[in-house]
From TrEMBL:
It comes from Jaculus jaculus. This is Polypeptide N-acetylgalactosaminyltransferase. Pathway: Protein modification; protein glycosylation. PROSITE patterns: RICIN_B_LECTIN. Its EC number is 2.4.1.-.
Length: 485
């Protein structure tokens, strides 16, 4: 944040890294050959909401839009200040921008959060297409044309660029070494990235065709202004940050639109390691999305995040009315048709939640994929906390003890000759070493070895489940509990 005008903080003539899979290579060359119908493409208003952003990243975003967008396609750049209080974003920013063509700065009169800040920008936009960007981006040559071309062809398409990575420490444009990834979510309603599935590769007519994506990351996309309004723009009951990306994604698909990523459009983004504001509203926002769009599947979310069920989420009547008015499809249709890769838990009553021991009271199965545990991927026992997450397991009708809170899903297994419980990838047909029988009396028998899972001391203050010869001990008795009582 040196204070100097960053005329060119981004590398000139940057080209994405080659050497990755087929699709990427083909699209790289084919994208450069694309011809666009400039005279007939719609013009766009670029809307950038910001809250307390650093000077250099904010200006880098603005200058890169101006330098990479063909004049004829760019109506204006609307910066929306979401009631920032940092000094450099006051008069100094206004004067920096005042000399720039097409750039408008508007300010919220109170903190609105990103949803209402973006809508404030959209409400004054004059272009036919709205293009939303985060305030720490760098647009890459040729980023805009494919987005507008696609919307010109199909008004109900909502189109995202490929999001390249800008390094959080060095601000270097790292690009995207692999082919584009698409968006999904896990059952905590956290956004996830995935490889393009085989069925989608088959559907694509060429390497420069759009890639359909079940969800979007949220920050970077173009949408016809008229279609955005038809779809009900955003849920204005959502505060600050989070949840609006999944809500909008569900709504686009369920109400008849398509959500796509254009492999020829690239925009870099600084993925924040920490945000300049609290993100505690994300939970309520996600609950609003679940309550309006997910039908009975919202229960799968509540099971994995019991706090969500208790979170006050305000009134969603109007959003439900919108759903009825637009005659949107149900969530089962979305899962079956748009996101068949997502495995849908069974959650049979009595067979999900904390897996608690009877002898070692208050201790539960616990699996933390992020933490380096004594043995890799080992299941441990920890004080039952009732918060779902790392202590949420599901016993399936396929006899698996599944961890399906996050992706990738994992299944409890015992390797041949060992006595520790570890998590392995699940598969469509359950491997023998992943089968457990939960008996009426609470015994948990590993089917292959015929041994019982027993709560066992590992050190003075830590416990693990291990396979032992079956006895009638309470340390070998287990039961599922949905919440703390
Ligand atoms: C991702 C999205 C982001 C948004 C978010 C979920 C990308 C690259 N980013 O988080 O756009 O969808 O998921 O909500 O897809 N802002 C305000 N007011 C606020 C808070 C934020 O104007 O109260 C602005 C902020 O300055 C930024 C944008 O909203 O321009 C998104 O916020 P972020 O960059 O902190 O979110 P990010 O990228 O972690
Ligand atoms: Mn961002």
């Amino acid at each position: 944040d040196s204070g100097k005008s960053p005329r060119r903080l981004f590398p000139r003539g940057y080209r994405p890294v080659l050497g990755s899979p087929f699709l990427k290579l083909c699209s790289f060359y084919r994208c450069r050959e694309q011809k666009y119908d400039y005279d007939n493409l719609p013009k766009t208003s670029v809307v950038i909401a910001f809250y307390n952003e650093a000077w250099s990243t904010l200006l880098r975003t603005v200058y890169s839009v101006l330098e990479t967008s063909p004049d004829i396609l760019l109506e204006e750049v609307i910066l929306v200040d979401d009631y920032s209080d940092r000094e450099h974003l006051k008069e100094r920013l206004a004067s920096e921008l005042s000399g720039l063509p097409k750039v408008r700065l508007i300010r919220a009169s109170k903190r609105e959060g990103l949803v209402r800040a973006r809508l404030l920008g959209a409400s004054v936009a004059r272009g036919d297409v709205l293009t939303f960007l985060d305030c720490h981006c760098e647009c890459h040559e040729g980023w805009l044309e494919p987005l507008l071309q696609r919307i010109h062809e199909e008004e109900s398409a909502v189109v995202c660029p490929v999001i390249d990575v800008i390094d959080w420490n060095t601000f270097e444009y790292l690009g995207n070494a692999w082919e584009p990834q698409i968006g999904g979510f896990d059952w905590r309603l956290v956004f996830t990235w995935h490889a393009v599935p085989e069925r989608e590769r088959k559907r694509m007519r060429s390497p420069v065709d759009v890639i359909r994506s079940p969800t979007m990351a949220g920050g970077l996309f173009s949408v016809s202004k008229r279609y955005f309004e038809y779809l009900g723009s955003y849920d204005t009951g959502m505060e600050v940050w989070g949840g609006e990306n999944l809500e909008f994604s569900f709504r686009i698909w369920q109400c008849g639109g398509t959500l796509e990523i254009h492999p020829c459009s690239h925009v870099g983004h600084v993925f924040p390691k920490q945000a300049p504001y609290s993100r505690s509203k994300a939970l309520a926002n996600s609950v609003r999305a679940a309550e309006v769009w997910m039908d009975e599947f919202k229960e799968l979310y509540y099971h994995r995040n019991p706090r969500a069920r208790l979170e006050p989420f305000g009134d969603v009547t109007e959003r439900r009315e919108l759903r009825a008015k637009l005659q949107c499809k149900d969530f089962r249709w979305f899962l079956d048709t748009v996101y068949p890769e997502l495995s849908v838990p069974e959650d049979r009553p009595g067979f999900f939640g904390m897996l608690q021991n009877k002898g070692l009271k208050d201790y539960c199965f616990d699996y933390n994929p992020d933490e380096n545990q004594v043995e890799e991927n080992q299941v441990i026992l920890y004080f039952c906390h009732g918060m779902g997450q790392n202590q949420f397991f599901e016993y399936t009708s396929q006899k698996e003890i599944r961890y399906n809170t996050r992706q990738p899903e994992a299944c409890t297994a015992v390797e041949a000759g060992k006595d520790t419980l570890v998590m392995h990838p699940c598969s469509d047909t359950t491997p023998e070493d992943q089968k457990f029988i939960l008996q009426e009396d609470g015994s948990l028998v590993h089917e292959q070895s015929k041994k019982c899972v027993q709560a066992t001391r590992r050190s003075s203050d830590s416990f693990v489940p291990l396979l032992r010869d079956c006895t009638n001990s309470d340390y070998q008795k287990w039961f599922f509990k949905e919440r703390m009582s």
